[in-house]
Amino acid sequence: MIPGLWVRAHISLSGVRGSRVPVRATSARAMIVIHPFRPNLLAAIFGVLAVLLPSGAWAQNEGFALNRFDVSEVGSDWFAGDSLDMRGKTRPGVRLVVDWAHKPLVRYDEDGNELDTVIEDQLYGYLGAGIILFDRLRLAANMPLLVLQRSNELTVGSQVFGPEQGAALGDLRLAADVRLAGKYGGPATVAIGAQLHLPTGDRSAFAGDGAVRLVPRLMLAGDLGPLAYSTRVSFNYRPSDDGFGTVSTGSEIAFVATAGIRAIDGRLLIGPELWGSTVLDAAFEKATTPFEILGGIHYRVGDFSLGAGAGPGLNRGLGAPQVRVVGLLEFIPDASDRDEDGILDKDDACPDVPGPPNDDARLHGCPDRDGDRIIDPDDACPDVPGTRSDDPSKNGCPDRDGDGIIDSQDACPDDAGPPNDDPRKNGCPDRDGDGIIDPQDACPDVPGVANPDPAKHGCPIAAVVKDEIKIYQRIEFETDKAKIRHESEVVLRAVLDVLVDHPEIKAVRVEGHTDNVGAAKYNYGLSKRRAASVVAWLVEHGIDRQRLFPEGFGLERPIASNSTPVGRQKNRRVEFHITSRDASKAADDSARSNPQGTGDNDDEDDDDPLDL
Q: What is the Cα gyration radius of the chain?
């Protein structure tokens, strides 16, 4: 036999918990229990809910708020626990929770056998609304609606048991909570608050207390990796403490504890919730200390949340049902901000990387350190403004010359050029293809050879340019003589190669020129002799004499001022002018690269570049 609480009278009723009430009388023996497998809680009920009786001759005891499911506020990830999601400057929300409890009030005999069910089923709907302000304050309201209650009338002596059936209002609940520390999703968030229950509920339906209730509370919640938890401790001040039979129903200490696992980017939460309370006047007695556990699942889709859960009562405390099933539908704007940049994930183009606001939705909330409108996660050069590219390795990187080679890898960032395996030439133009990049090539359109003299670097020794065999190095002579210096043979060989490669050149005038130092007649003769020396060298090396015509011009045709050494040096020169071509033997007038050669006049300064 399950022990009960016994009160002797002409008819003795005792031992009811919100689940079970043992009843003993001289002419009758019975037990009333609210829950099938709970210890005794309630004592002595002399009449229940006279409004249900056909006449006023029956005595009645007023009921109280029997349901022990204290639904959480709008925005919580739990059914009864509170995740303390207080994000939002002005963030409203609404929710509907449906709660079905089976056998919260059952009659048992003194041996613990079920005799009759007083309340078989309760179906509640909770309409909640709330608003979150200043990322810290939450104001909420919740109206319980007893949609359906199935109960059975039980008469013992002159007393009637059986709450009112059908729909009824519960006690309207108002709440205010303030976040003190921490943030949603962090390891620990702390808040305090209070609930105020107004006496709008129907006592005869066991849906209200008939008096104002005040519930101050302290809450803690957080996430530790994928593990989410919450806990709440509260004091429920219940001035209506008439009791239920011999079971006290006064002020209580209550708690909620939850733990679960988050998945799918935090949108899914699965885990149990445990809650219970105990009446201070009879602390931790079985009848006054109901406990329940609920296994639940919650899923968020955008601004909507769905939830479902079920679980049993864990003991026979007053109001704990045999089984409880709940469902939830909530709308509250999603305030997720994973990167904490102040821009909600649903509006943030980069929800995992902090960034500033932007009028362009594609850039809103995305970092763009270099301001090139290419977000840093996609920008291969996030600290240097650049341009878009289909190549991820180049996207957002500067390419001033637009050659497809980013500036950091481009040896010539301001001159478009092709790729090159040599980092010193990569991205550099080389129009003549001589391997010397155009910015360093003194002759970028004519293939040439390397030369330590920047003015000659990349230039050929000799090349056909229009109607001239142009030489890019000087032919030097002994001072005041027509004798060719040995080092100038490299230039003459280059001219020789051009003449061999271009048989269509039928006639070349070989011109000699001097500066203005000395008499004009002398200079004329010197220039003519020097031109003849060049022709003689070429003929000696295989060129037909009929193709070459030496001529001297002395000082008549200067190309620079004779007032400076540099200018005079430029005027002392040999030129090769094509005077006749055979079109039938025309060859490609491209220059032929020749081995590098240098030469300096031993009586003049040759440091200045040759005027080409």
A: 52
